[in-house]
């Protein structure tokens, strides 16, 4: 089995965008959709593009889904189709299956039948947009798991000219510093110690409790 083949089942906006991005990153991508125009639109970008029914196990087998290391079920509006596609992928021995869900009920069912990850794009996009609109100093947030993120943010004024140990960041913000950049988009510096004093224009990168740290930023407490 190749470790480089990824299957994308369903080519709506979410599936097509995902497949195109993966292909541009150099991954070998197999796509399947029952609408010829969707398949034709992306056929030149991916390794294999098949017109077919993702709920038919023989269609999946013939397309090479049994050789995939990962499969994403990208059609989230029809629960029955997603369930059948996941069941077939499991029978074909796919090690990792992700699936799109339109609501929490779908999400619960898809996890129950064996999806390794369930994605709710609308909810995740809404959370990201809300965070972006309310930020003061945070530049980027990368959600690692529930409640834990990597955050990149401007150095607060009150942190300037103070040693790292004296800022007491772990107790105040549940924050663990990974490193800093001398300016935005500069190379990350990881040579930090308790007596490190950050430059005035620094951008800090840290692992944080998402809820705690974002709340402080939203309330503009990071001054």
Automatic annotation (TrEMBL):
Domain (RCK N-terminal) ranges: 3-120
Pfam families: TrkA_N
Superkingdom: Bacteria
Record GO biological process: potassium ion transport
InterPro entries: NAD(P)-bd_dom_sf, RCK_C_sf, RCK_N, Trk_Ktr_HKT_K-transport
PANTHER family on file: KTR SYSTEM POTASSIUM UPTAKE PROTEIN C (PTHR43833:SF7), POTASSIUM CHANNEL PROTEIN 2-RELATED-RELATED (PTHR43833)
Descriptive protein name: Potassium uptake protein, K+ transporter (Trk) family protein
């Amino acid at each position: 089995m190749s470790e480089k083949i990824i299957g994308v089942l369903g080519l709506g906006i979410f599936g097509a965008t995902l497949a195109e991005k993966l292909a541009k990153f150099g991954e070998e991508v197999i796509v399947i959709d029952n609408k010829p125009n969707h398949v034709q639109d992306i056929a030149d970008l991916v390794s294999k593009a098949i017109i077919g029914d993702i709920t038919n196990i023989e269609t999946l087998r013939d397309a090479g889904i049994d050789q995939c290391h990962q499969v994403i079920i990208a059609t989230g509006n029809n629960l029955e189709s997603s369930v059948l596609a996941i069941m077939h992928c499991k029978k074909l021995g796919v090690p990792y299956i992700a699936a799109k869900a339109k609501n929490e009920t779908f999400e619960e069912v898809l996890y129950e039948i064996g999806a390794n990850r369930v994605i709710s794009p609308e909810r995740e996009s809404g959370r990201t947009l809300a965070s972006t609109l309310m930020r003061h100093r945070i530049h980027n947030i990368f959600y690692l798991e529930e409640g834990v993120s990597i955050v990149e943010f401007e150095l607060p004024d009150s942190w300037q000219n103070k040693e790292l140990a004296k800022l007491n960041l772990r107790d105040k913000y549940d924050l663990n510093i990974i490193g800093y950049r001398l300016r935005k988009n500069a190379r990350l510096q990881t040579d930090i110690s308790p007596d490190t004093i950050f430059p005035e224009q620094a951008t800090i990168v840290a692992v944080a409790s998402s809820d705690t740290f974002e709340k402080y930023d939203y309330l503009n407490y990071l001054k």
